[in-house]
Amino acid sequence: MATPPPNARRTAPTGLCRVLAALLLAASLLSASCSRLSARSPTARRVEPRVRAVLQAHVGAARPALPRERKVPLLLVADAAGSAPAPEKGPQGAAGPLPEVAVSAAVPFAPGALRDVQLLRLLDDHGAAVPSRAKPLAVWPQGRSIRSALVAFRAALPAGGRAIYTLDYGAPPPGAPPQRAGAPAAQSAQAAVLDEALLPNPDGPIAAVLPPSWYAASLVSGPQLPVMDDRRFPGFEAGIEGALARMTPAYDAYGVTCSAPYRTYYDGPHALYQRFLRNGDAARYRRARAEAVWYRQHELRFSPDRRLAVHVCEREDWTPAAPLSWQVLRRMLGQGMVDDYLLTGDPAAREAVLAMGEALRQNQAALTGGREDVLRVTERNMAWVMMTLSSYYALDPRPELLSTLRGLADRTVAWQQQGASGAFEHDLTRADPSECERGPRGGSPFMTALLVDALMDYHALTGDPRVRDVVARAAGWLAERAITSDRRAFRYLWGCETDAYDDSGTADLNLLIVPVFGAAYALTRDPRWIEVGDALADVGVKEMLVKEPKHWNQAMRAFGRYLGYRAALPGAASEWQRSAGR
After folding, report:
1. How many angstroms separate the CA atoms of 147 and 145, rounded?
2. Measured between alpha carbons, how far is 319 from 321 in angstroms, rounded to an integer?
3. What H or E segment, with its residue span, contains residue 563?
4. Alpha carbon 289 to chain centroid distance?
5. Half-sphere exposure of residue 483, counting CA atoms within 13 Å on the CB side?
6. Rounded CA gap, 456 and 474, in Å?
7. Distances (CA, A) of 201 to 69, 183, 197, 230, 456
8. List of residues 6+ apart from 267 with CB closer than 8 A
9. Which range has the worst mean pLDDT, 19-23, 109-113, 447-451?
10. Given this model, what pLDDT does residue 370 score?
């Protein structure tokens, strides 16, 4: 949504209302009010001027950016059952003040935006300073600026109540000593009155969330586009939400299985966090958070010293000397766990990322040096390993981890260069004989998309210039050779000698694959990649299949990133409007 021009007095209140609707989680009620406001703009003065100025900075734009005034609204929602204990009765039976509870918020920042947590200052809904504590959770490895910071404080809200606080990340309080991103959190005079137990409280009775435009600008989980700004693919937004609500059996009715379709396939926590980030509301935050906790409780097995973790489907006697099974590699969900840590500060999420990453780091020799290179049997094997090791490096950017990651990138570059197609060519029959009886050299478009996603995670942390050419070549292969002859979908397998797979029956996979074109555009700024991606996305949205968690996760985890990539397209807002009218 483009920011309204200064002279658009009748349309500006409508834009502001849309932001308030997202922040206050009452879109259905506010939309009616906004319709009335657009006809009577003076009513907009009912919004307190300071709050309006802060929120106006978050009106959607084609390319999300951090607000210039270095403030961000923080919405507090007392949404949990029993969220506010009843106030104690006074001597005369009168209700006393509401008791305060611990609240924490993990606030992500774009590269270079914040280097010192002492620059954070919290103001309540009346503009008064709120005593708070803050500490860095993670840094961007390049430049070492803060990627996410945990802010903890106390607040009192009645059950179901809401308040808009303001987080100022501009100037330090008078006399505050500098606090480096990598240093332990210092205790300011304001913070001295707070208990260390306040850090963190991600499941407390009051949720604290930020506008979706802030999450998009922060790049905390890759490129995103807020749902309220997606005019180009409204069918996706309606379809993905409707499918989750109508799923039968329900999403959370699925459990752990080592063979049949299972709940977290394609990283359910990551998919649900992508959904939250694009909406920014407390209910979706709670749902994503619950899935991350469920995954750790039900699907991870830690070593006795908790330094290593593998999926429960791995043999109980596994050691790093034996390669992890292919089925387990796709169940090690580094992206979802790093999302959970960067957006909640929960140390259990950090522990899971580091333990899975260390298991994979120690397993590299077994995975690549045995009778076969397990990581190059299919693109998917390399993808999941690179995603988790990138998540590990994001939280613990040590040189030895960077060396491991670069080693994976070296293998990936060499793999692609061994063929002339741009695919990551491998023996199709070896991976799954039931899908291809004979096909010694081919590739899988949907698995390639996963590998490109992993490469983009790696690139965001390292800036490795080789990724640009690898992704562009993969996009060229998809657009020219792996596409079906009617150009509506991708061949399920490319290069299979016993089945050409030249049909569009797999168009539901388009939403998983088109982010490759978005990534190619992000790296090359060649708009033709968006033209190709949009055409295939239109078919994918129409043919979207999201009847169980596996399919829902694969669409949600991927397509939001495509929308984030294409948001950087010059004139994107007007292009969306033209496309919608076609």
Report:
1. 6
2. 5
3. helix 549-566
4. 12
5. 18
6. 13
7. 28, 21, 8, 32, 31
8. 333, 335, 336, 553, 557
9. 19-23
10. 82
What's the N-to-C CA distance of the chain in angstroms?
19
Q: What's the pLDDT at 93?
A: 54
pLDDT band at residue 84 under the 50/70/90 scheme = very low
Q: Which helix (H) or strand (E) holds 180?
A: none
Sign of CA dihedral 364, 366, 368, 374: negative
Q: Of residues 439 and 470, which shows the higher confidence score?
A: 470
* pLDDT classification of 558: cutoffs 50, 70, 90: very high
Per-residue pLDDT of 125-156, as tens digits, reads 999 999 999 999 999 999 999 999 999 999 99
- Measured from the Cβ of residue 311, the count of other Cβ atoms closer than 10 Å reads 23
Which residue is it, tokens 């929960």?
Answer: 346
User: pLDDT tens digits for 53-79?
Assistant: 434 444 434 445 666 568 999 999 999
Cα dihedral 536, 272, 198, 168, rounded to 10, equals 30
Q: What is the largest CA-CA distance in the chain?
A: 86
- List the Cα angle 511/516/518 in 5-degree steps: 90
Residue with tokens 């580094």, as numbered in its chain: 334
